[in-house]
From TrEMBL:
Domain ABC transporter: residue ranges: 5-239
Keyword ATP-binding set for record: yes
Cross-referenced SMART domains: AAA (SM00382)
Protein known as: Iron(III) transport system ATP-binding protein
InterPro entries the record matches: AAA+_ATPase, ABC_transporter-like_ATP-bd, ABC_transporter-like_CS, ABC_transpr_MalK/UgpC-like, Mo/tungstate-bd_C_term_dom, P-loop_NTPase, Transp-assoc_OB_typ2
Keyword Nucleotide-binding belongs to the record: yes
């Protein structure tokens, strides 16, 4: 059966140099059965502390954690049916790959034959079958990571937890391993909580992304929603490049931008006359025609796309264009427009 996880009003305070730090500030979240949920946010926002409370490695100051609707807040870590993959893998250096993976089952006193079968199956699943007798220092970073994952999965956890599992891998391997993790998670259907500060990684693997800021949940939703319907300038800015253009609402779904009335989406109910920030993704800017005129200040060739910094009136906009068509050089004057629905009025 797939498990659900629920956090209710979780608070965690640390005493640090006679000061109380509220690392997690009233976090409530629902993790649907089988979902891959990422906690995303800048350094210090509290995401690791939330993960450690789910694992039982930190005790909440207040609040409750429910696994399949049963409170587990007081259950010790080894009885929680959660398993964690750590950033530095936390493998035992003096044990073989086999014994590293077998460790938790030995603590559980699983009979030897059953243990051997379970470990061999997980090593095979992770492509580590031929490496069972090696020690961790005889493995590459990617292989050590797979051992850590096999060690977590062999416990048949109800909840799988990842704390920045890719940060010690190089850029290319990171993309491959994150795909491997995602496919494995889909196949097993295990409810997964994954901590990262890399927004692209979060969007690539997640069913739901939770954006955290200063100990609180700023926004939670599917990646597309977070990207296209950010609830605040913080979210819009954190989740990839965005233009945030000051404007004033001139109607329920209209704002005055650079002296011109433009249609905007107004999901947060900004009042007529209210000052807002219009969020605009760079790929939603159309160059070549349209009611606005701008001057290309910078053209940055990035291979698959070209990024333009364009001065329009008193504002600077970033636009991206794919492919090698319609290249503009620095100093060029161009007209521009925005895709329908691309401007979102943000009130904070
Ligand atoms: P990072 O990406 O840097 O790991 P994070 O979002 O995971 O950041 P946390 O590690 O959860 O953030 O930390 C949240 C806040 O709590 C930070 O201000 C941190 O300094 C503080 N904190 C975390 N653990 C402790 C501790 N054991 N004692 C005191 N303060 C702590």
């Amino acid at each position: 059966m797939r498990s659900t996880l629920r956090l209710a009003n979780l608070v965690k305070e640390f005493e640090s140099q006679k000061r109380t730090v509220r690392a997690v500030d009233d976090v409530s979240l629902d993790f649907p059965a089988g979902a891959f949920v990422t906690l995303l946010g800048p350094s210090g926002c509290g995401k690791t502390t939330v993960l450690r409370m789910i694992a039982g490695l930190e005790t909440p100051t207040s609040g409750e954690i429910y696994l399949d609707d049963r409170p587990i807040t007081a259950v010790p870590p080894n009885k929680r049916e959660t398993a964690m993959v750590f950033q530095n893998y936390a493998l035992f250096p003096h044990l073989t790959v086999f014994e590293n993976v077998a460790y938790g089952l030995r603590l559980r006193k699983v009979p030897e034959a059953e243990l051997r079968r379970a470990v061999a199956e997980k090593l095979e699943m992770m492509g580590l079958g031929s490496m069972a007798d090696r020690q961790p220092n005889q493995l590459s970073g990617g292989q050590q990571q797979r051992v850590a994952l096999a060690r977590a999965l062999v416990m048949s956890p109800k909840i799988l937890l990842f704390d920045e599992p890719l940060s010690n891998l190089d850029a290319k391997l990171r993309i491959q391993v994150r795909e491997d993790i995602r496919q494995l998670q889909r196949r097993l259907g295990v409810t997964t909580v994954y901590v990262t500060h890399d927004q692209e990684e979060a969007m690539a693997v997640s069913d739901y992304v939770v954006i955290m800021n200063a100990g609180r949940v700023e926004q939670a939703g599917p990646p597309e929603e977070i990207y296209y319907e950010p609830c605040s300038s913080f979210v819009a800015d954190f989740i990839g490049g965005v233009n945030l253009i000051p404007a004033r609402m001139s109607g329920p779904a209209e704002a005055v931008l650079l002296d011109r009335a433009v249609p905007v989406r107004n999901p947060f109910g900004a009042a007529v006359g209210q000052e807002v920030k219009l969020a605009l993704r760079p790929e939603e800017v159309r160059l070549g025609e349209g009611p606005f005129a701008g001057t290309v200040e910078r053209a940055i060739f990035l291979g698959r796309l070209t990024e333009y910094v364009i001065r329009v009136g008193g504002e600077r906009l970033v636009a991206v264009v794919h492919g090698r068509h319609s290249r503009l050089s620095e100093g060029a004057v161009t007209n521009l427009d925005f895709n329908p629905g691309a401007l979102v009025a943000l009130t904070r």
